[in-house]
């Protein structure tokens, strides 16, 4: 199915799919990059918030849906889009359980499938820095 949305390069998708942690910075303000869990479903990158703290990356994306990810040795500007599809959310539930299945992580993977975290399901879409972000934003993204 073609959605017309820009996709991540294949090597970056592989790095996200095969890696345990995705580096992410939500918003365009300078602050540290944190590591979160991410899954690839239907060739698309999805993340969920386990913690819904007021200053969480997810809440930042709600207010300012631009940021960056680091994967496969690259830093890529992204746009965050909230996911509404229940079919996709079900597939993402399964993807988290399949990817994060070790004894130490399965509890958190299950929690990410609960209603509270499912409501935070976010797709990350790559965007071109040129013409999309200001020079200062693009500088911070690199």
Q: What is the average per-residue confidence, as pLDDT, rounded to a whole number?
A: 88
Trace the largest sheet across and list its strands. Answer: 2-1-5-6-7-4-3
Which series of helices and strands comes N to C?
HEEEEHEEHHHEH
| Uncertain residue segments | 131-142
Number of helices: 6
Residues in helices, as a percent range: 25-40%
Number of strands: 7
Strand content: 25-35%
Instruction: Give the distance, in angstroms, between the N- and C-terminal Cα atoms.
Output: 32 Å
What this model shows, in words?
- The protein is α+β, with helices and mostly antiparallel strands and 142 residues long.
- Helices cover 33% and strands 25% of the residues.
- It has a 7-stranded antiparallel sheet with strand order 2-1-5-6-7-4-3, with helices on both faces.
- The longest helix has 14 residues, at 86-99.
- The protein is globular and about 35 Å long.
- The protein starts with 9 loop residues before the first helix and ends with a helix.
Care to give the gist of this entry?
The protein is α+β, with helices and mostly antiparallel strands and 142 residues long. Helices cover 33% and strands 25% of the residues. The chain has six helices and seven strands.
Secondary-structure blueprint:
Blueprint: H1 10-18, E1 22-26, E2 34-36, E3 38-41, E4 44-47, H2 57-63, E5 66-71, E6 74-82, H3 86-99, H4 106-111, H5 115-118, E7 122-126, H6 135-141
Antiparallel strand pairs: 1-2, 1-5, 3-4, 4-7, 5-6, 6-7
């Amino acid at each position: 199915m073609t959605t017309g949305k820009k996709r991540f390069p294949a090597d970056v998708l592989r790095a996200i799919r095969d890696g345990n942690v995705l580096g992410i910075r939500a918003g365009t303000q300078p602050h540290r990059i944190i590591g979160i869990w991410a899954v690839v479903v239907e060739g698309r990158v999805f993340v969920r918030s386990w913690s819904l703290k007021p200053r969480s990356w997810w809440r930042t994306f709600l207010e300012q849906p631009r940021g960056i990810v680091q994967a496969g040795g690259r830093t890529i500007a992204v746009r965050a889009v909230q996911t509404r599809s229940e079919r996709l959310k079900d597939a993402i539930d399964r993807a988290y359980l399949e990817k994060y299945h070790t004894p130490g992580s399965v509890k958190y993977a299950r929690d990410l499938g609960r209603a509270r975290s499912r409501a935070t399901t976010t797709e990350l879409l790559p965007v071109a820095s040129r013409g999309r972000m200001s020079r200062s934003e693009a500088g911070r993204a690199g």
